[in-house]
Amino acid sequence: MDKEGTSNEVVLNQMKAVLSDLLDSKLASLATKQDIHALREAYNSMKEENKLLRCEIQQLKEANVKSEKLMEDLDNKSRRNNLIFRGVLKHSSSGGTKTYSDIISEFCKDILKVEIMADNIHAFPLGSRDTSNSPLMVSFTHFRDKILVLGAIRTLKNTGFIIHQDVAEVTRKKRTKLILIRKELVRLNSRLRHH
């Protein structure tokens, strides 16, 4: 071979070596079958773990719902003997000398015509300020006293006095929604009757 052919061959071999090195370096960063298999196993493992975690989260949600319901029930039971009186302090002539229990006892006797001893009543104002507009939380020693008061509520119509049951906040929100639904149903029902 002549000198030029040899030098071309050398250059060609050098180019082959450079291309081979370049190709090897590019292929080295690609995943092998073993790498893909390892990734697939890791993915399947994470998928299974995710499935277990979702199941556990669902169980925790269900347990939380049960706990919240139990807490609501216990909260309502603890309020079983309670009523909230509104407007009583505004119309009371106590002059600051009577206890809240005395005021409620007199209110029950004079307005509701229900006799309840002040000793069987624990009353205190609700809210951060004690004003004449403050509603009173009234807890009766005996459940039957609460029932007597509830039975006499109809006498308060258009008087400015309001008495309602003390219930848990969750229950109060549920009742508010139900009342709104009832009002809408009554409205729709009355429209249906007129058509």
How are the secondary structure elements laid out?
Layout: H1 3-28, H2 33-78, E1 82-86, H3 100-112, E2 121-125, E3 136-140, H4 143-151, E4 162-165, H5 169-194
Antiparallel strand pairs: 1-3, 1-4, 2-3
Notes on the structure:
This protein is of the alpha+beta class and 195 residues long. Among the domains are: 33-79; 81-167. 62% of the residues lie in helices and 10% in strands. The longest helix is centred in the first third of the chain and has 46 residues, at 33-78. The relative contact order is 0.10. The mean pLDDT is 88.
- Report the biggest beta sheet as strand number plus sense, adding barrel if it closes: 4 strands, antiparallel
Please state the average pLDDT score: 88
Report Rg: 40 Å
Structural class: alpha+beta
How many angstroms separate the termini? Answer: 111 Å
Oligomer: single chain
Give the helix level as a range of percent: 55-70%
Number of helices: 5
Strand content: 5-15%
What is the H-and-E element order?
A: HHEHEEHEH
β-strand number: 4
Q: What overall geometry do the principal axes of the alpha carbons give?
A: rod-shaped
Q: Which sequence of strands runs across the widest sheet?
A: 2-3-1-4
Uncertain stretches of 5 or more adjacent residues = none
